[in-house]
Amino acid sequence: MASGFGQFVEVAQNYGPTVAAGIVPLTIFAFLRRFGVLYQLFHRVEDHSTRHGGELVADVLKAHGVKFVFTLTGGHISPILVASEKLGIRIVDTRHEVTTVFAADAVARLSGTVGVATVTAGPGLTNTVTAVKNAQMAESPVLLMGGAAATLLKGRGALQDIDQMSLFKPLCKYTATINTVREIVPTVREALKQAQSGTPGPVFIEFPIDTLYPYNTVKKELLGVSQGKSLAQKVVGMYLKNHLNNLFAGAWEERDASPLPVDRPMASSAQIQSVAEMLSRAKKPVILLGSQATLPPTPVDDLRAALEAMGVPCFLGGMSRGMLGRNSPIHIRQQRRDALKEADLVILAGTVCDFRLGYGKVLSRRSKVVAVNRDKVQLYKNSDMFWKPTQAIQGDPGNFIVSLQAALKGYTCDTEWPKTLKTRDDEKEAKNSDKAEEKTEFHLNPLKVLHTTEDILDENSIIVADGGDFVGSAAYILRPRGPMRWLDPGAFGTLGVGGGFALGAKLCRPESNVWIVYGDGSLGYSVAEFDTFTRHKTPVIALVGNDACWTQISREQVPMFGSNVGCELAFTDYHVVAEGYGGKGYKLDRSNEDQIREILQQAVRDSKKGKSVLINTLIGKTNFRDGSISV
User: Fold this and answer.
1) Range with lowest mean pLDDT among 49-53, 233-237, 270-274, 555-559
2) What is the DSSP secondary-structure string of 482-551?
3) Distance between CA 108 and CA 348 in Å, rounded?
């Protein structure tokens, strides 16, 4: 009963005379129902002194195969953490709440399940807002659970009590507040279903502290304030006792904790056949694959096999980077704009016409365009301005591609078309390699460092991208060796994902070398998570491009406005910071330029021995990617 004693008095005053006279029996029914008394008449209020709501949360998480819960601890949520650990769920505590959701996001992307984070009330939850919005825009199924003030104390000035629901309703597919302990199991099950259904995304459940702690603890806190013999005190005591009984009535009844069916939209057979006919007639088709194509239920290996069988040239973005391996003849990395101008059929499989595709302006009006997306809004994004889909299909892109290949019955794209695009690719990348050999003033050429890194990456490496200019260059040079081995923030362009993404990735794939490619600006957001890597034995490798500047902004701001204000940093000894958190640090600069490969390889060896490593790489300026800023 969130509205407290005042509401009780109001209802009692309204109904009291009628109830006392026995004139309107239905009013008694309404009165009892309003205060949960009817539920108590048919459900026992059991005094399980050691049981608590956190156990019910843990039961559902365990039944759904959740292996990790990320947290920054707080008194509101302790029961969830303790109960989860007892069931074998690994509790991973971080140094900032935003990291908990970033880590859960990475787990969701790499595992195909829901990533889970839980943080305390108030500032604990407000600290996660950026990561929750990032998960929403990246379409990652994440469950965030947060503490809250006790049910009767909401809005009364309790510790860390704010209107949390108003923050998360615009960010989440599903939000809920737990009002009684018996609601926990069905609510958590529904939240986990909603996170994965349709277009995946984050969900939020708020747990008032009295729904998580044991009955006797709550009873002591709640009824301890109502002792007295006056009529007012007795009325308060009666109200509080009734509230307590309703809070725990039916709490420990047996309930199904297993997963609910997940709803996913699929293309119809007629839609698939229509596109198959278009593709069979096309001379220069192109597929643009986005992150959504990697979502369950279609295995990424099946998707890769379908793409290779069709032989259509592909541009890969987001989580689909690496889908075709390092050197596939149909994976085109460069000069996408030119290819789209020539293409007579473009299939947007989970790719959205937002800023990344010039809002659709890069698509030729002469091309037929097939858009496939789970989300109707994304499916038609900017179609009222710059482009029109020939066919728009609300369905799962991965399943669509596999079904399309099956419907084509032996079709293979004319090899001359991908060969033409691949030749252009090779020419562009040769020029990029030449730029890596240019001398930069004072410090190392960043392209040379990145090319050397590309050479030593092994097949199992996972790359986490967190930064602006240095990371933008890395996206052109580093090649993920397989699907699900590239993690970037997505359309929100969020800085600070590095620590959390790497933590989640290393826990999901402990056998992989996890590389964080940082800018020196973005490193500042999560360098403290080196402490987390050390404590939880999740060694990662951080390659930091340190040019003492927010260069992504500076490279446009200075020529445009003649000022570098707000963009200057320092050549800080970040490698020493990492060592202070229990990691290993190396500094790369002109003095050891001939040892770049050796130091990178040593970092890999250190990581395999259990040490997280930070390579502080002092880099100079290049004109690579000039004019690439997006605002």
Assistant:
1) 233-237
2) STT-EE---TT--TT-HHHHHHHHHHH-TTSPEEEEEEHHHHHHHTTHHHHHHHTT---EEEEEE-SB-H
3) 23
Spatial separation of the C-alpha atoms in residues 540 and 578, rounded to whole Å: 12
Instruction: Answer for the pair 138, 291: CB distance below 8 angstroms, yes or no.
Output: yes
Mean pLDDT to the nearest integer, 98-112:
97
- For 315, the enclosing helix (H) or strand (E) is strand 314-316
**Phi, then psi, of 112 in degrees rounded to 5:** 75, 10
367 within 8 A of 305, measured Cβ to Cβ = no
DSSP labels, 2-42: TTHHHHHHHHHHHHHHHHHHT--HHHHHHHHHHTTHHHHHH
Give the torsion sign (CA, 432, 619, 479, 100): negative
Using CA atoms, how far apart are residues 312 and 275, in angstroms rounded to an integer? 14
Name the strand (E) or helix (H) holding 277. helix 269-281
Q: How far apart are CA 619 and CA 464, in angstroms?
A: 20
Both tokens of residue 526? Answer: 């999560």
Closest alpha carbon to 9 in 39, 35, 36, 41: 35
Q: Could you tell me the pLDDT band of residue 503, with boundaries at 50, 70 and 90? A: very high
Any alpha helices (H) in 380-490, and if so which ranges?
397-408, 416-435, 446-456, 469-477
Query: What number is the average pLDDT over the span 352-365?
Result: 92
pLDDT for 21 beyond 70: no
User: What is the Cα–Cα distance from 371 to 103, expressed in whole angstroms?
Assistant: 31
DSSP string covering 280-292, please?
A: HH-SSEEEEE-GG
pLDDT digits 0-9 by tens, 583-596: 999 999 999 999 99
Contact 58, 81 (CB under 8 A): no
pLDDT of res. 47: 56
Sign of CA dihedral 265, 271, 272, 275: negative
pLDDT for residue 363? 93
pLDDT surpassing 60 at residue 495: yes
The CB-side HSE value for 601 (13 A sphere, CA atoms) comes to 7
pTM to 2 decimal places: 0.90
**Does residue 350 contact residue 293 with C-beta atoms inside 8 Å?**
yes
What's the N-to-C CA distance of the chain in angstroms? 47
Confidence of residue 37 (pLDDT cuts 50, 70, 90): low
22: confidence class by pLDDT, cuts 50, 70, 90: very low
Which residues have CB under 8 Å from 30's CB, separation 6+? Answer: 15
Cβ(300)–Cβ(291) below 8 Å: no
Please choose, from the candidates 158, 118, 165, 149, the residue with its C-alpha nearest in 3D space to the C-alpha of residue 213: 149
Q: List alpha helices for 22-128, DSSP H.
A: 25-34, 37-42, 53-63, 78-86, 97-111, 123-126
Mean pLDDT rounded to a whole number for the chain: 89
| Distance in angstroms (rounded) separating the CA atoms of residues 67 and 87 | 10
Q: What integer pLDDT is reported at residue 20 of this predicted model? A: 35
Tell me which residue of 258, 112, 110 sits closest to 196, measured CA to CA: 112
Q: How far apart are CA 181 and CA 252, in angstroms?
A: 8
With CA atoms as reference, report the closest residue to 205 among 110, 134, 132, 308.
Answer: 132
